[in-house]
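hey so i finally got around to running the thing on that chain from the lab meeting. sorry it took forever, my laptop kept dying and i had to restart like 3 times. anyway pasting the input first so we r on the same page abt which one it is
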Amino acid sequence: HPTPMGSLDKVTTDEALQKWHADVVKRLGTDDVRYVTEPKIDGLSIDLVYENGAFVRGATRGDGSKGEDVTPNLKTIRAIATRMQLAKDEKPPALLEARGEVYLPLSGFNELNKRLVAEGKKPTPNPRNAAAGSLRQKDPSITAARPLSIWIHGLGRKDGVPAEGHWDALQWLRDHGFRTNPYADVHDSIQSVAKACT
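ok and heres what got predicted. didnt touch it at all, straight out
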């Protein structure tokens, strides 16, 4: 990956959320913090690399520095933009990493399992495994036959992208044809975050 790709922390209690917030405030040196929340989609983390507005390469998160190149399979997913949508006379970033989660919607998961059973094959145990297995196929036509989708939830390297924070980055992604979660929201306090997550 052009820049390291981290994993998400898991917080499941109000106390853990408050502890995490205190750590964020300490690291930033300010308590003036805004948070962005969005539903967690259980799929496979992906790093999409765009050069001069065109999708050129995609890889799984792997160890955070290097993942498995699954570009041919990603190119079969209709929800992944092959080119950024640009305004007239807008110059695309020389290099941009769009980071997201490839997933299999529940309806697609149910369809896939019905088809596998009808073919005498073992059904997949859950949508996450089905998405990961679909993306790692050696034959892209198998991936193409599965109704995979993606939510883009952030940026890695972003040459020249005028985004002043995560919320601005999500808006920039939406404006440029990337599929972002419509339930993302911005919060001015950790109490608002806690309320949104219950």
